[in-house]
Amino acid sequence: MMKKVVTLGEIMLRLSAPNYQKIVQAQSFDAVYGGGEANVAVSLAKFGLKSSFVTKLPQNALGTSAEQQLNRFGVSTEHVLYGGERLGIYFFEKGFSIRPSKVYYDRKNSAFAMSKVEEYDFDAIFADADWFHISGITPALNEELFQLTKKALETAKEKGLTTSCDLNYRSALWSFEKAREKMTELIKYVDVCIGIEPLTLLGEDGKDIKDQLPEEPRVEDYLSIMEQLHERYGIRYVAMTKRDHVSVNCNRLQAYLYDGRELYQSSEIVVDIIDRVGTGDAFSAGIIYSLISDYKPENAIEFATGCFALKHTIEGDANLIPISDVEKYMSRSFSINR
Amino acid sequence: MMKKVVTLGEIMLRLSAPNYQKIVQAQSFDAVYGGGEANVAVSLAKFGLKSSFVTKLPQNALGTSAEQQLNRFGVSTEHVLYGGERLGIYFFEKGFSIRPSKVYYDRKNSAFAMSKVEEYDFDAIFADADWFHISGITPALNEELFQLTKKALETAKEKGLTTSCDLNYRSALWSFEKAREKMTELIKYVDVCIGIEPLTLLGEDGKDIKDQLPEEPRVEDYLSIMEQLHERYGIRYVAMTKRDHVSVNCNRLQAYLYDGRELYQSSEIVVDIIDRVGTGDAFSAGIIYSLISDYKPENAIEFATGCFALKHTIEGDANLIPISDVEKYMSRSFSINR
Amino acid sequence: MMKKVVTLGEIMLRLSAPNYQKIVQAQSFDAVYGGGEANVAVSLAKFGLKSSFVTKLPQNALGTSAEQQLNRFGVSTEHVLYGGERLGIYFFEKGFSIRPSKVYYDRKNSAFAMSKVEEYDFDAIFADADWFHISGITPALNEELFQLTKKALETAKEKGLTTSCDLNYRSALWSFEKAREKMTELIKYVDVCIGIEPLTLLGEDGKDIKDQLPEEPRVEDYLSIMEQLHERYGIRYVAMTKRDHVSVNCNRLQAYLYDGRELYQSSEIVVDIIDRVGTGDAFSAGIIYSLISDYKPENAIEFATGCFALKHTIEGDANLIPISDVEKYMSRSFSINR
Amino acid sequence: MMKKVVTLGEIMLRLSAPNYQKIVQAQSFDAVYGGGEANVAVSLAKFGLKSSFVTKLPQNALGTSAEQQLNRFGVSTEHVLYGGERLGIYFFEKGFSIRPSKVYYDRKNSAFAMSKVEEYDFDAIFADADWFHISGITPALNEELFQLTKKALETAKEKGLTTSCDLNYRSALWSFEKAREKMTELIKYVDVCIGIEPLTLLGEDGKDIKDQLPEEPRVEDYLSIMEQLHERYGIRYVAMTKRDHVSVNCNRLQAYLYDGRELYQSSEIVVDIIDRVGTGDAFSAGIIYSLISDYKPENAIEFATGCFALKHTIEGDANLIPISDVEKYMSRSFSINR
Amino acid sequence: MMKKVVTLGEIMLRLSAPNYQKIVQAQSFDAVYGGGEANVAVSLAKFGLKSSFVTKLPQNALGTSAEQQLNRFGVSTEHVLYGGERLGIYFFEKGFSIRPSKVYYDRKNSAFAMSKVEEYDFDAIFADADWFHISGITPALNEELFQLTKKALETAKEKGLTTSCDLNYRSALWSFEKAREKMTELIKYVDVCIGIEPLTLLGEDGKDIKDQLPEEPRVEDYLSIMEQLHERYGIRYVAMTKRDHVSVNCNRLQAYLYDGRELYQSSEIVVDIIDRVGTGDAFSAGIIYSLISDYKPENAIEFATGCFALKHTIEGDANLIPISDVEKYMSRSFSINR
Amino acid sequence: MMKKVVTLGEIMLRLSAPNYQKIVQAQSFDAVYGGGEANVAVSLAKFGLKSSFVTKLPQNALGTSAEQQLNRFGVSTEHVLYGGERLGIYFFEKGFSIRPSKVYYDRKNSAFAMSKVEEYDFDAIFADADWFHISGITPALNEELFQLTKKALETAKEKGLTTSCDLNYRSALWSFEKAREKMTELIKYVDVCIGIEPLTLLGEDGKDIKDQLPEEPRVEDYLSIMEQLHERYGIRYVAMTKRDHVSVNCNRLQAYLYDGRELYQSSEIVVDIIDRVGTGDAFSAGIIYSLISDYKPENAIEFATGCFALKHTIEGDANLIPISDVEKYMSRSFSINR
Questions:
Q1: Domains in chain B, please, with CATH?
Q2: Is the per-residue pLDDT at F245 higher than 90?
C-alpha cells in the first residue's frame, strides 16, 4: 500500500526576474508557486507517494493558481483551507557568477499567516497518513503559527505518524535566541531532524550547540553534535547538507545522515546551478522517501544527496525529478538518453 | 517658461497575465508601474511640461523600479519619499470580447498607504509649480491620507496653484456615503473637477447629485449638474467622459467640458482597445495640458478626448503619446506614416 | 453530495504556431494537451463537479504532461491506462480575418488508438459516477474503439448513469455512410445528444435526417428532426449549436435545447475569438452541468450558450471559466471587475 | 515548362516593435527582411514559379541573413551582388485602431543604393527569364539607380521579356514633379503598370493625370485615365487597388484591372489586419502570376485581390500564401480546415 | 569548379523544451528540423560547397517547413520526394550539469521510413556530384531502407563518387549483432568511414572489433583497429571522435584521422555546450570538406575537430559556422571581433 | 554636496541576437542603448552621483528611446543636442565557450558623428561640474570630433574640472600611428588615464611605449611605463585592467592603479560572463567614483575592479550595480541575500 505524507506550511507566489536580469531591469516576472513544505510535497508526489499539502489560500485567482500547481504535480489539496486576504509573494533575483541571488519577501498578512489553529481539522488531515513534515519557517512567522506547528506535531505523534522537521533558521524572521527557545520546544516531537539548524538548538550542556563547532568543522565535529541531539531530544535521524560556493552558480555539495549509531557521508558532487531555491526541500524529500522506503542509511544519504544535487538543475521551487532520474544520476552517466 | 505640474498619489506594481491569458493560466506576468496620478504625471511629461510626482516608495528593488519608470518617461521624482515596507501591487487579467477584465488589488500596508502627513514638505514640493493634481483614490485609502490630500490641496491653493481632482469613486475602497461626505469636504479646494464622480457630491439642494440624473442621461442633464457644481463649490471647469461598451475591447467614447458658461461636447469615437487602464488619467492629462496652455474650451475637449481615446491603444498604465500624435489623430488619418 | 461525471476519449498534444503565424513561419509551437472528452472533463471540474477522464497514455514525458494538465485543472486520472507507443499530436495554425484556421492531425498509432476493450475496467471506472459522456470521434478511430464506446455506453446504462454523446462527425475519419451506420447503433444508449450530428443519423422514415433539412433551416425544421430523434431513439434531450462566420475570428452564436416537448432557443451572441477549438466541448459541459444540476431548460440553454461563447475568449483547448464567470456573462456586464 | 520572373530592387532589415508597442516602449525588435520587389519575388516563388531577385548586399551577417530569407522562401539569389557597407534598415511601429502605423527609414548609403549600373550583368540575369518586375522606389533613390532601372527595363524589352512596374510614388524620396518626369521616361518600357501611381504620369493632353481625377473618383474616372495610359504609353494592362480605412487595422479593399479594352472590377472585401506592409507587393505578385498563367482578366483581378487581401493576415513583409489558399479564400469559407 | 556533395537520410521536426526545462514543465517547444545527413548537408553548404539533400517529405506544412530550412541554409532540395503521411518528430530535453539530456523519438511511419527504393532516381541525384554521404541510421530503420542505402552506395561507387559513412550505431534501432551484419555488408562501398562505429564491424580475425579494445583505449589501440579496417574493407580514411564528460554541458573533445598510413591526432579542446545534437555531423562535414579540398591529414583533422567543437556552441541541429570562423577558432582567439 | 560628473560621446542602439544565437539565426534582436561614455554616466548615476551625458541625438523615436534609457537610470540629458539624421547602431552576436563574440558597427553618419564643435555650449555643460570624462573613441570618429574632444578637455581644465580619459584604441576606427599622434595631443589635458591604451602613446624616449613591453609583461613592466606617462604628460593617475580568457565566457580579471608614486594591484577574480560589453566602462566609473570620493588608492583599485568584474554579470551595456552591491562583492559572499 502506497505511503502517505502530509506537509504543512505556506506556499507563496514567486516572481523571478527572467534571464538573470536584475529586478530593476525586469519587464516581466516568471511566476511559480512555492514554499518549503509545498516543495517537499511535490517532490514526494513525483516519487510516487501519496502527498497532501495543508495550508490556507485566499479565494482568488492566485490562490487557485497555487492549488492548481500543487495538483498539476500530483499533490492532494483536499485539506487546504480557503479564505483570508492575500497570497504571500516573494521576488527573486537570480544571481550569477560573483553576483549573489536576492530574495525580497512580501509575505506579511497572507491568508496562511493570519490563519488560526482551530481552523485545522487534524483528525481529517492525518487520516491514513504515515508521515508528517514541517519546517522551522512556519513557527517563525508568528505565535499563532508556532502553536499550530506544535499542535500539528503533537497530534501527529499521538496518531503514530513519523515526524520530520527541516529546522531552517531564517534570521529575517526571528532572532537566533527566539528560534532556539521555540525550536527547542518543538524538537521533542520530531523523529527526523533535517538541516544544519540543529545548531540552533541547545546542546546537552545547556550551551548553544553552535558554539561547540569550530570554524572549519570536520565530520567528527558534526557527529558529536548529532549524538547530543539524539540523546537529549530522542531524534532518531539527523540529516544535514554542506555547501561550498565555487561561485554563485557552481556549488560543491555533500550531505550527512546520522541514525543514532553512525554518521553516513555521501559522496561529494560539484553542480552548476539553474535554480538554487528549494534544493534543501529536495533533500528533505529525498530523506523522507528513502527512510519511508526503508533504504539502508548509506543508500538513503546517497539518494537524498542526488535529489539535493539534481534540484539545482531544475527551474522553479520544486523538484520534478522522478525516482528513475535520481537512480540514473547515481550511476553518473552524462550521455544523452536516446 | 515651461509650466510645472505636481501630482500626488500611489504608484503600484501592475502584474498582467500576458496574451489575454486568465491569471490561472499565466506562467509569467508583464510588469509595469502605474497609478492614477503617476499616469497623469507621465502623460504631461510626454507633452513637454515639467512634471513632478510625489509619493512614498519602499527602499527596495521594486521602489527603485517604480522610480526608474517615472524617470524614464520624464517625470521628476525629486520629492519622492523613501521608506516603509512594501510597494502596492495589483494583478490585471485583461478581458476580451465578452469576457470582462479583472483587477485584483494587493495594496494594503504599502509605503504610501502608511505614510504620514508630516513627512511631506509642501513648501519644497510646490516650489515653482503651477498646477496640482490629485484623485479621489488617495483620500479613500485611509483617514491619514484624506488629511494628506486636504492639506496638499489647501496648501496648493494658498500658494496660488490651479488644482484639479479626478474624483474617481471606487466602491471597493469606501462606501458611497463616506465618499460623498469626504469628497464634499475636499471639493472646495478644487478648480478643475474631472470624472463622472461629481455625481458623488451633494447637489445644491442638499440631495445626492446622482439622484438627479435620469437612467439614460442626455447632455442637458449633465449640464444642469455641472451648473450646480460651479455655483455651489466654485469649480471653474468640470470635465467628464462617457463610455459605451460595444464589447470588452471595443468602446464608444465621448467627453464633455463645462467652463462655467457652456457645455462643450467632443466628437464621438469608436476605439478598439489594447489597454483600458489609465484611459481616464490620459483624459485628465489632456484637460490639464489644454487648460494650462490656454486652449479654447472646444479645442480643449477635443484634445483631451484624443488623449483619452489614443491611450486605449497603448499597452501599460501610462499614455506615451506626444502632442504631435494627438494632433495627427485629430485629423483622423489612418494611413502609415512613412 | 457532489455529482461525478466520467468522460472517455483521446487526449493529444496540440502544437500551435504562436502569434497567428503560419506553420511555415513558426520557430516554436505553444503546447497544450486537449481532446473533446478531456476538454469536457476539465470544464466540469472547473464548475466544481467530480470529473474523471479515461484514456490510455504512453509512459513517457508527453504522457505525463497530458496527465499533469488534467490534474492541474482538477480532473481525476485515476483510471487512466499507461502503455503504448506514442501520444497523438495535432498541429494548429490559427487563422485570422479571412484566412481560415488549419488543423493537421498526426494521431495514428497513438496509445489510445491502439488500446483494447479488455484493458478498461468499467466497474471501477463507473463506481460512484452519475453521468458518462463520450463523443463520435472515438468510435470513428477504428473498430476496436467503436466496440469500446459501445461497451462503455452499454455498461453505463446498465449501471444507471445518464449518458451523453457529442456525435461530432469528422469527414476525415470516416465516410458519412459509415458514421451514420455506426452512430445509429450507438445512439440507443444515449440520453442526451449534443451537436448537429443528429443529422448523421437515420430519420424515422429510414432516410437520412440531413436530407430533411432545407438549405437555410429555420427553428421549426430543427424541431421536427429533434422530435423524430426523441421518438425513434428515445433521446431525452437534444442540444445543438449554430454558428455564423462574420469572419474567421468573429462568429455569431446561438444554441437550442429540445427536452422532448419544447425547443428552447438561447439568445444570440456575437463573439470575437481568441481560440475556436474546444468551444463545442464547452457547450457540452454547459449542457451536462445544467442538466445534472436540474436547471430549467430555458436556463440550461442560456448557461450552456454562455459556456460556448466564453470559451472562444480562452486560449487553449479547455474552458477554464468558473460558474461565477458564466453567470456574470449572462448579465452582459463588460466593465472592469475591480 | 515553369515560367521565370526576375525582380530587382532593395531588400532591407525591418525591425518591428513587438505586440503593438510604440518604439519608445520596445525592449526588442522582431526582425524580417523585406522590400517591394523582394516581396514580389517571394510571393511568386510560393506560387511555384521560378523567381530570381537581383540586388546588392553587404558581405556581413545581415547580408547573409537577407539572402537566407529569400532562399528559405524559394527565391533564387544567384545573381545577387555582394559588397558595399551596410544593409538598409527600416523601423516599424505597428499602429492599432485609431493610432496609425509609423515607418522610420534608415536606408541611406546601403550596398544597393551605392551600387553601379556596370556591376549588373543583365545577359546572365535575364537568361531564361519570362518576366521582369520593378518598382518606382529604386529610380527614386538616386540618379545611378534611375539609370539602372532604365537599363534593366530596356534590356528586358530587347530580350523579349514582359515588364511590369509598381510605380509606387513615395513623397519622402522625391518630389511629385521629379517622379513624374522620371517615371514618364521609364513608362514606355513597361507592359503592365501596377499601383495608383499611373497618376504620377503625364496625361495625353500634357497635363498631370492626377488633375483629371475628381475628389471622390468613380470607376469611370479611372477608366478614362487608363485608356489614356494605354494609348499614350502603350501599356497593355493597368492594375490598381483601392483602400478605405475603417480603422488602422480594418480596411475595405477593392481592385481594378484594365486590359486595353475593358475595366474589370474585383469584389469588395473587408479585412482585419495583422500586417499591412507588403500588401501592394502581394497584389503585384497576384497580377503577374495570373497574367503569366493566362487567366481571364475577370479571374486575374479576383485572384490578385485575394492575394492582396490575404497578405493583410500574414506577419512580415512577404506573402507566404500558396495558390491553394488563395483559391480557398475565393470560395469564402471561414471554417477550420481539418 | 565548386564540388558537389549529396547526402541521403531522414530529416525530422525537433521539438525542444526551452530554457533547460524538463518536458513536463514546457508550455512551448522550440522547433527546428534536423537529421544526421541533413545536418551534414547544411554544414557543407555553409562552407560554400554545392550540397544536395535527398529524402522523402510529407506534402504538408511540416514537410514544407523542413524543406524551407534546408533552402534557407543553402541546401538544394531538387531531388526531395514528396508524399507519405507524416514527418518524423523527436522531442529534446536539454540536460544541464549533472542532469543528462533526453531524446524521445516519434519517427515511425514517416514519409521517409515508408519510402521505396524505386522512388529514387539515382541517375538524376548523382549527376555532377563528387561525393556521397550516408549514415548508419537509415539502414537501421527497416529492410527497405537498408536496400536503399546499399543501392545508393553501389550506384555512387559505379559513378565514381567518393563515399563516406557515419556508421552511427543506435541501440534503440537495432541490435548490435544485426548492425554488425548489415553494416559489414555496406562497408565495402565506403571510402571514408566516420565515427567510433567501426567498432560495430567485424575484425580481420572474424571477431568483433569492439572486443579488441581495452577498457581505457590508447591511441595505439585505435590505430591497430583502423589498420584492420583499411586492409580488410579497403577503407581509405577512418575518422573518429572522442568525448569525455566533464559534465553534461562541458565536454573534453579530441579526434583522430587515419589515412591508411598514419594516425593523426587533433589537439584536445574543452568546450561548454549550448547544443550537443549534431556535433558528430559537424565533424563529418569537416572531414568531407577538408578531404574534398585536399587538406593535408594533419590539417584535416584539426579543421574537422574545430567544426566538431564549434557546433557545441550553436543552437539547433545544424552547424552554421562558415570556414572563416573555423579558421579563427584554430587560432584560439577569444576576444570580441569588432 | 553631491559631486557632478559630465561625460561626452556617442550612444548607439545595440541590437543583440538573443539566447546566444548567431545573427544569421536571429528572428528578433534585444535592444538597449549604449556607448562608452554613456555607460560611465549610467554607472555613476547608479552610485548616487549627479551625472550628465552630452551627445547629439536624432529627433525620432530612436533618439527619444536612447534619452529615455539614460533618464531611466538617472542620467541627466539636459545638455543633449537634437538633430541630424540617424542614431548609430551596432549589432552584437554574443559568443560562447570557444566561439568569440562579434560586433558589427553601423554608426557612420550618425547625428553625433555629424555634429559640429560650435553646437556645444561648454559653459552651460560644465556649470557646477566637478569631473569630465571622455574616451579615445570620439576623437577617432573624425577630425571635427577630435577637435570637439580637444575643446572639451581644454575648457574643462580651464574651469578647474578633473579630467579622465579611457584611451580605448580601436583599430577599426584609425591606424595605430594616427591614434598615437592624436591621443598624444590630447593627453596633456588628462588627469586620470584609464585603459591599456597608454601604450598607444609615445614614451619618454620618443619611441612607442608599446615597444617597451615584453611579450608577457610583469607588474614591473607596467610600472615603468606608468612612471614615464606620469612624468612626461603630467598624468596624476593611471589605471588599467588585465584580462585573461579562460574561455569566451569565463575570464580572469585584475587591475592596477598608479598614483604617481606606487602601483596598486587589485586581487584577481575569475568571472563567468553574461555580458562582456561595457565592462571597461564600469571600471572607469569605479575609478572616477572612488577617486572623487577620496578613497585610498588600494581601496580605489579594489572598488573599481569590483565594478569591472560585476558588470560581466549584468545584461546590457551599462552597469546597474549600486554601491552596496560592490561592497557586498568585496566581502566575497555568494549566498542568497534573503
A1: 4-330 (3.40.1190.20)
A2: yes
Averaged confidence pLDDT in chain C: 93
pLDDT at position A203: 65
**What does the alpha-carbon distance between residue E146 and residue E150 come to, in Å, rounded to a whole number?**
6
β-pairing, D250-258 vs D263-265, is: antiparallel
Q: Which residue of E has its CA nearest to D67?
A: E72
Mean pLDDT across chain F, nearest whole number? Answer: 93
Question: Which tens digits make up the pLDDT trace of C123-164?
Answer: 999 999 999 999 999 999 999 999 999 999 999 999 999 999
Q: How far apart are CA B173 and CA B175, in angstroms?
A: 7
Amino acid F327: pLDDT: 93
Is 70 exceeded by the pLDDT of residue E200?
no
DSSP E strand stretches across chain B: 4-8, 12-16, 28-34, 50-54, 56-57, 81-82, 89-93, 102-106, 131-135, 162-166, 192-194, 237-247, 250-258, 263-265, 269-272
Mutation site for D-interface testing, chosen from B65, B73, B324, B336 by largest number of D Cβ within 10 Å: B336
Supply F142's cell numbers.
573624425
Which of C20, C102, C277 is opposite residue D274, by nearest beta carbon? C20
The upper half-sphere exposure of residue E85, i.e. CA atoms within 13 Å in the direction of its Cβ, equals 11
Chain A contact partners (≥3 CB pairs within 8 A) = B, C, E, F
> Considering only CA atoms, which of C87, A303, C26, C62 is closest in space to residue E102?
C62
F45/chain E closest Cα distance in angstroms: 27
Asked if the Cβ–Cβ distance from E273 to F21 is below 8 Å, we say no
Shortest CA gap E213–chain F (Å): 32
Query: For chain D, where are the E strands, in sequence order?
Result: 4-8, 12-16, 28-34, 50-54, 56-57, 81-82, 89-93, 102-106, 131-135, 162-166, 192-194, 237-247, 250-258, 263-265, 269-272
Integer angstrom CA distances of residue D143 from A123, D113, D139, D153, F16: 90, 10, 7, 15, 35
Which set of grid coordinates corresponds to residue E110?
Answer: 514517416
**Which pLDDT value is given to residue D40?**
98
Using one digit for the tens of pLDDT, what is the confidence trace for F271-310? Answer: 999 999 999 999 999 999 999 999 999 999 999 999 999 9
Q: What is the DSSP letter of C278?
A: T
Sort out which chain D residues have CB atoms less than 8 A from B324's CB and list them.
none
Cα distance between residue D327 and residue D230, in whole Å: 30
Q: Is the pLDDT of residue A205 over 70?
A: no
Plot region of C144 (φ>0 → left; ψ -120 to 50 → alpha; else → beta): alpha
CB C13 within 8 A of CB C89: yes
Residue to mutate among D20, D24, D97, with most B CBs inside 10 A, is D97
Q: How far apart are CA E77 and CA E67, in angstroms?
A: 7
Contact D68 F29 (CB under 8 A): no
Collect the ranges in chain D with pLDDT lower than 50.
none
Amino acid identity for residue A263 in this structure: L
Angle, CA of C1, C4 and C7, to the nearest 5° = 175
What is chain E's Cα-based Rg? 19
- Banded model confidence at residue A220, pLDDT cuts 50, 70, 90: confident
Q: Chain D contacts of B317, Cβ < 8 Å?
A: none
For range E278-288, the mean pLDDT: 97
Q: List chain D residues with CB under 8 Å of E325.
A: none
- Residue B127: CB atoms within 10 Å: 13
In the block, cell 534582436 appears at F29
The half-sphere exposure of F287 on its side-chain side, counting CA atoms within 13 A, is 34
Cα–Cα distance, E31 to E12 (Å, whole number): 10
Q: Which residues of C touch D (CB under 8 A)?
A: 19-22, 24-25, 95-103, 105, 170, 172, 245, 247-249, 276-277
- Indicate the residue type of E189: Y
Cα maximum dimension of chain A: 57
